[in-house]
């Protein structure tokens, strides 16, 4: 995120992305009990306000958005496994696509064993521990490298024209990093008072929760400059055991996080096919093996086929995250509270809708250009 933006653009961009993401998610949270009922799925809220067509469109955009998040996690998990491999055998025999395939298989096994989101239970605690371990090790090693390294180059690479497009694409990546389009699903079981507790969770997430992200992002860019790789642990130097532990936690955290963001798809498929009763019943277990296994097989194949997926994530941020999180959230709030808002408040929401619509179009053009350029540089099943 920092490389195409530089220090000023990167720092300002991250802070702005945090602020506007908090604001947009707060709008969604305040509509959670709209119309005298709770809306535990984002598509249900959109359908309640607009009707069936927007319900279907929202579900399509959300599914694409979550699919791209899942492919990103599988690539991350595969990169972590490869990171461990090269620490002991840097013989170029095992390529990144092989490790992506292994990661996909583990994710499928986890998805089959965890029947629904609420069954994660203790795994969410492990997820927190894995994240903290990764952040601490990454921060310590990058800080040490930064202190011991010579002067770094922080210039933004590329020509003047390419810098414009990469900056716009980076903006899409910034909002993609903070938003999932599934806030109602994540908060579906929150206690009363629902909206108040959702707001507490959001304030925590976008203040204390983003500090480790800021710390590792800024320290990593400071330590390695414009040569920073997409997967930070590929840059760090230090004791082998620390790098192994960081890669292991990155891998395990990816497996758990992917399951969270794949859960809306799992829930939709389970509901559509009438899956009820014991999770270990033969019918239900067979269904998870075939359907979830098939979904993750497709996800893994796309991840291995196009490991330079960051370009496609910019595209997803442009065509999914901007409309779902910013355009739709502002318009839903405007429609739901039209009789309660002042003229200034209405104007504010319309300005947001227009601004993010323009950003969505611009980011789409920039992302398509980046995909075309990188498609000439990288081949399918590339070993990045």
Automatic annotation (TrEMBL):
Regions crossing the membrane: 6-34, 96-114, 121-143, 163-181, 202-224, 244-269, 289-309, 315-335, 347-372
Keyword check for Transmembrane: yes
Which molecular-function annotation in GO is an example for this chain? symporter activity
Primary localization? membrane
Among its keywords, does the record have Transport?
yes
An annotated GO cellular component of this protein is:
plasma membrane
Keywords attached to this entry: Amino-acid transport, Auxin signaling pathway, Cell membrane, Membrane, Symport, Transmembrane, Transmembrane helix, Transport
One of its GO biological process terms is: amino acid transport
Q: Where is the Amino acid transporter transmembrane domain?
A: 2-368
Domain of life of the organism in this record? Eukaryota
Annotated compartments: Cell membrane; Endomembrane system
Q: How does it sit in the membrane?
A: Multi-pass membrane protein
What family name appears in the similarity comment?
Belongs to the amino acid/polyamine transporter 2 family. Amino acid/auxin permease (AAAP) (TC 2.A.18.1) subfamily.
Q: What does this protein do?
A: Carrier protein involved in proton-driven auxin influx. Mediates the formation of auxin gradient from developing leaves (site of auxin biosynthesis) to tips by contributing to the loading of auxin in vascular tissues and facilitating acropetal (base to tip) auxin transport within inner tissues of the root apex, and basipetal (tip to base) auxin transport within outer tissues of the root apex. May be involved in lateral roots and nodules formation.
Name-wise, this protein is Amino acid transporter transmembrane domain-containing protein
Native species: Lupinus luteus (European yellow lupine)
